[in-house]
Amino acid sequence: MLQYHHFDTLDSTNAYLQRLQSETDIRDWVVSADEQTAGKGMGNNGWESEVGKNLTFSLAVDTGFLPAERQFLLSEAVPLGIVEVLDKLLPTEKFSIKWPNDLYYGNRKLAGILINSTIKANMMDLSIIGIGLNVNQMQFKDWPTHPISLKMITGKDYDLQPLMEQIAAHIIKKVELLKSNPTAIEQAYLKRLFRYQTWADYEVDGKALRLFMTGIDAFGRLQLVDEQQTLHCYEIKQIKFLV
């Protein structure tokens, strides 16, 4: 049973759960905040969110069943859980997952995910999943990711609490599926992967390259081939998507 804890203001929902982790059992806790004063995205990038307009929350999940070397499966399962809710909410729209786990609408970023995990021996232990979903905000700074919100797509306002509860429940379902059928998660992730099996422009070491995305390896590295059919594998921060 998920336990919900809401705050008007926190530095970061992920950081709050990390601080509590050594003091109490936080498994299945969901911590949300109207405002994060130090919210972070992937690679410690800032996260812009107008107070009370969007979903900013973190979910603590027991991932002790998952080998540490397969931890990227979690980065596949979590966005799929969110997409499942969005598909029901906006059935005529198309959402994609930009590697490793951002959610996109067209070429614009709708949500970001930040996962902090602890590992025991060769197995995962506990994962704190931070989610920022743009919901009712109508204006953003001119970030390179060109943020967009659900309200900008539909013109409608959304009730944040029930939306968060749906997303948390669907994430739990996807994480549970990793126990019995990780291949199903991997296949579903590829079907939603932004630019999968297409040529597109990227930047590597300051150089623009035209590359064809072929998939993800077992460690979660992005696989692409160049025009000479040479295979390249990139980890996070080694490659930049040019949009």
Indicate the topology.
Layout: E1 3-10, H1 13-20, E2 29-36, E3 55-62, H2 72-89, E4 95-98, E5 102-105, E6 108-120, E7 123-133, H3 150-154, H4 160-180, H5 182-192, E8 199-204, E9 207-216, E10 222-225, E11 231-234, E12 240-241
Parallel strand pairs: 1-2
Antiparallel strand pairs: 2-3, 3-7, 4-5, 5-6, 6-7, 8-9, 8-12, 9-10, 10-11
Short description:
This protein has five helices and twelve strands. With 243 residues, it is an alpha+beta fold.
Task: Describe the fold and architecture.
- With 243 residues, the chain is an alpha+beta fold.
- The protein has 2 domains: 3-192, Bira Bifunctional Protein, Domain 2 (BirA Bifunctional Protein, domain 2); 199-241.
- Helices cover 26% and strands 34% of the residues.
- It has a 7-stranded mixed beta sheet, with helices on both faces.
- A hairpin with a 5-residue loop joins strand 10 (222-225) and strand 11 (231-234).
- Helix 4 packs across helix 5.
- It is globular.
- The N and C termini lie far apart (41 Å).
The CATH superfamily of the largest domain turns out to be: Bira Bifunctional Protein, Domain 2
Share of helical residues: 25-40%
Low-confidence stretches: none
- The CATH topology annotation of the largest domain reads as BirA Bifunctional Protein, domain 2
Give the neighbour order of strands across the main sheet. 1-2-3-7-6-5-4
Largest sheet: 7 strands, mixed
Count of discrete alpha- or pi-helical segments spanning 4 or more residues = 5
Q: Summarize model confidence as the mean pLDDT.
A: 94
Count of domains: 2
What radius of gyration results from the CA coordinates? Answer: 18 Å
